[in-house]
Write a structure and sequence with these properties.
Blueprint lengths: L1 H19 L3 E8 L10 E4 L5 E3 L5 E4 L6 E8 L6 E7 L4 E9 L16 H4 L11 H4 L5 H8 L17 E4 L2 E2 L23 E4 L15 E4 L9 E8 L6 E8 L7 E12 L9 E13 L4 E15 L6 H7 L7 E4 L2 E4 L2 E5 L2 E9 L5 E9 L2 E4 L8 E5 L2 E5 L7
Parallel strand pairs: 1-7, 8-11
Antiparallel strand pairs: 1-4, 2-3, 2-5, 5-6, 8-9, 10-11, 12-13, 13-14, 14-15, 15-16, 16-19, 16-20, 17-18, 19-22, 20-21, 23-24
Length: 407
């Protein structure tokens, strides 16, 4: 009995000794401007390539197979300037480097992922059957695709002959391509530029964290409240191509006490007339996201998007009409009962509600569960423009002088 007791006591002492000698590297990463913790920062031990990410509180920890001696920690996240921190790891000791900071990378601002809703996307006659895929391509930093999106989009250039039905657009991991035609309706989230900067683009059918790839690539827009930097922004823009003015205001709380975070945005785009005659523009957009960090592994996020837009459309014209009336001529508009009217008005009103659950099962496994609901309508008007003057010829009646008549 005495020998058993001594053996048990020896086991306890040995376990405590082993626990006391455990080698640990831990720390935290803060925003250099606001002092707020930064989640999802990648921390890497350069010699071995071991890496981990900070949690919602901005903290991280290494506890297994740590190299000893002088080491370098690389700390990096998209949108911030990467930093390298030298440390010394001794066996059986804890290295605590809390309070590391990352500064916002202002030089990288011009390259942030932005979805721009082009006139072709919103003004499409058939929900994207003939328009280009510039919105998807702009999410990529690839030199060729950027040129295709910005330089050639107005000429309906299609890389490899692919259109937007060959690419996928996701929001928080939920595919937004329409079920009836396989194409994304960009107008459903138009005017929300300030909350669409965090995107992940996968080229072609390459591996993607949320879905199988597609020929034209996959773009996932991350619109979680906890992923936005704390702060607000108010902006005004004036243009003469599609709308005449745009007002936008947004605010993000960052991570608050209790694990809460939220982000809101409102914008309005308006114009009596764009560059093309008779192209009215009236669009209002609202966005709200609220997220609760339940613990280090579970998070619940709600996102609501309401982007109603109404605008007058235009169409292609022949060279003859161009020479007679100029490049701004639009055969879809004219005077009706003393009022200026566009016969082809397009209205999009389809709010989106989604609830996302994020579960970090382990460092290698993550589970994302989503529920989304979209409702509303897409409408197009058309006024008969077959003719304005009745002509009788050989017993047949024909109307001539339609809206496309430039006289």
């Amino acid at each position: 009995m005495k020998n058993c007791f001594l053996l048990f006591l020896f086991g306890i002492v040995f376990s405590l000794s082993s626990w006391a000698q455990q080698t640990i590297v831990k720390g935290s990463v803060l925003d250099g401007t606001t002092g707020e913790p930064i989640p999802d920062v990648t921390v890497t031990i350069e010699e071995t390539g071991q890496s981990t990410k900070t949690n919602a509180s901005g903290t991280f920890r290494f506890i297994e197979n740590l190299p000893l001696g002088e080491q370098v920690l690389k700390v990096e996240k998209v949108g911030y300037v990467s930093k390298r921190y030298p440390i010394v790891i001794n066996e059986g000791q804890t290295v605590d480097i809390s309070g590391m900071t990352l500064d916002f990378d202002s030089s990288d601002k011009k390259d942030l992922f932005i979805i721009s809703i082009s006139d072709d996307n919103l003004n499409s006659e058939d929900d994207g059957l003939t328009d280009n895929i510039s919105g998807l391509l702009q999410a990529s930093r690839d030199v060729f695709l950027n040129a295709a999106a910005f330089d050639f989009s107005a000429t309906f250039f299609r890389p490899r002959g692919l259109d937007n039905a060959n690419g996928k657009v996701l929001i928080n991991g939920i595919e937004m391509n329409k079920q009836f035609n396989g194409r994304p309706q960009w107008g459903n989230w138009g005017g929300l530029n300030d909350v669409q900067r965090n995107q992940v683009f996968s080229m072609g059918v390459s591996a993607n964290d949320y879905t199988f790839g597609d020929l034209a690539g996959t773009n996932n827009i991350i619109m979680r409240a906890s992923k936005y930097r704390r702060g607000g922004r108010v902006s005004y823009a004036s243009a003469n191509r599609s709308y005449q003015g745009r007002v936008m205001a947004s605010y993000s709380s960052g991570l608050l006490e209790g694990g809460w975070s939220y982000s809101v945005l409102g914008s309005r785009r308006y114009g009596e007339n764009g560059y093309i005659d008779g192209t009215l523009y009236d669009a209002n957009s609202f966005f709200v996201a609220v997220e609760k960090q339940l613990n280090d592994k579970h998070s619940l996020n709600f996102t609501g998007i309401y982007a109603k837009n109404r605008r007058g459309r235009s169409t292609a014209i022949t060279e003859e009409v161009y020479n007679l009336k100029g490049r701004q001529y639009n055969p879809f508009w004219g005077m009706l009962n003393g009022e200026q009217r566009n016969s082809r008005m397009r209205e999009i009103n389809e709010p989106i509600l989604m609830l996302n659950h994020f579960w970090d099962v382990s460092t290698k496994v993550k589970l994302n569960t989503n529920v989304a609901y979209q409702f509303g309508k897409i409408g197009n008007t058309r006024i008969d423009n077959g003719g304005t003057r009745l002509v009788n010829f050989n017993g047949e009646q024909t109307y001539i002088g339609g809206a496309r008549n430039t006289d």
